[in-house]
Amino acid sequence: MTFDLILFYIFGAILLGAALAMISVRNPVHAALFLVLAFFAAAAIWLLAEAEFLAIVLVLVYVGAVMVLFLFVVMMLDINLARLREGFAELLPAGLVVAAAMATVLTLVITRFIVMDVPERAGADYANTEALGAILYTEYVYPFEIAAVILLVAIIAAIALTMRRRPDTKYIDPARQIRVRRQDRVRLVSMPSSPEVSEKDRSE
pLDDT tens, 32-86? Predict the structure, then answer.
């Protein structure tokens, strides 16, 4: 057993353990942290497969941006966990079917029933970033452009939903705050004096 294979089994066990812990813990913050650990283990496996670019992108994009944003949202929002678990029993059969299908495929791959072609080991001068760019912009250029258009439409839709004016929400207009004057906020009211107070009340 080589050292690379030992590292693969170690990171694979970490990945499986983190994934199981992510779906089994009750605290959403802990689940997000376990997902970050799963991403790091997957990035290490990508490094063992000589896919350095994909491993760096996985860490920078998902761990460094998406999961940090998700953690901030989870910690700032008051999530009703009881409401989230309401549809668990209804979706459990579909989840079990998907899990069984994935476990069957993994078992067939591990037992070598499904044989996959092992790529040749690249040389020292091989750059997977250059190879990925060459394939992406030649053979898969149209799917790449379609995916870019779909992402652009999603960004525009998210901005449009955020920028729409909703009367039920409270918001602050900084321009109106800057233009405020003392006369607009403070008003002197001339009120008649109170009736005559007795000497007893004055002494008190």
Answer: 889 889 999 999 998 888 888 888 888 888 888 777 777 777 777 666 656 666 6
pTM here is: 0.58
> Does residue 75 share a domain with residue 2?
yes
Compute the distance between CA of residue 154 and CA of residue 148 in angstroms, rounded to an integer: 10
Quick: pLDDT tens for 149-199. 999 999 998 888 777 666 666 667 777 777 777 777 777 777 777 665 555
CB atoms within 10 A of CB 55: 21
In the chain, the number of structural domains is: 3
Is 61 part of a structural domain of the chain?
A: yes
Tokens 């994935």 found at: 102
Domain that holds residue 151: 126-163
Query: CA angle at residue 29 from 23 to 33, to 5 degrees?
Result: 70
Evaluate whether residue 145 is within a structural domain: yes
By the 8 A CB rule, do 7 and 44 touch? Answer: yes
Same-domain pairing of 95 and 114: yes
